[in-house]
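User: My instructor asked us to take a sequence, write out its structure as tokens, and then describe one feature of it. I'm not sure where to start. Here is the sequence I was given:
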Amino acid sequence: MKRIDLHIHTTASDGTATPEEVVREAEKLGLAAVAITDHDTAAGYPRAAAEGEKRGLEVVPGIEISTKFRAAVHILGYYIDVDSPALEEVLEWMHRDREERNIKLCEMLRSVGVDIDIERMHARFGDLVGRPHFAEILIENGRAADMQDAFDRLLNKNRPFFIPRQFLPIERSIEIIREAGGTAVLAHPFQYRLDDAQLRELIEHCMESGLEGIECRYSGYDADMCAYLESLAAEYGLVRTGGSDFHGSHKKDIRLGEGRGELNVPYAFLEELRERRAKT
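Assistant: Let's start with the prediction itself. The structure tokens for your sequence are:
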């Protein structure tokens, strides 16, 4: 059976593998297709697509947008036009908000003796700087033992260096994916810790704005969890997707295409996604 991975992050956002490295590793693992779904940017896709063309590996353009529906929720977009003006406008707004928060965080860290500024962060990590990059700095400065410790004690909500962000409304997130020609999918549903009624409410609310899929297979989800999500997809007439949420060394226990060893996303999911798109 041909396997795929439709949830991957690269150095274009907060992953540690370049788009080219992701494609080369996917080829080595025998994956039939991958989707580049960096946080709030599509900048990594062209590089991955060029490498995929060289190696005969299918690369799907994607994105993961951070939104809010009472609590934080992530929406995946597949087959987006990465040059869509409407998408670019929203991503620029998100980038400005992130940059303002990053500058404030640099100031907070300097106030406690960490020698860092936003220019050096960009020089080291690239255009899109996120909390995992600040976690690396905290680890290097002896303020945290590892990535998990940095988030748990210092960077998460109600911790000393947490700065709240502005979220794009979930309705607008789905709409902008559709305006960019993409298919909107609810990412990792169990991460929101909702009961059945609450998850159904979220799905139904998103469908009103044009949601077309659910991520049914994901790192750490056992067979029963996947079966439950696939039953919801069938009930609501939504396509199924799946992916590892690979971030490279920022999430060392999650491997490309394999998750924590249990992940198995069939190529049929991608065919299902394309069939849905052909009908709309």
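For the description part of your assignment, you could build on this observation: The chain is about 45% helix and 15% strand. Try explaining in your own words what that tells you about the chain.
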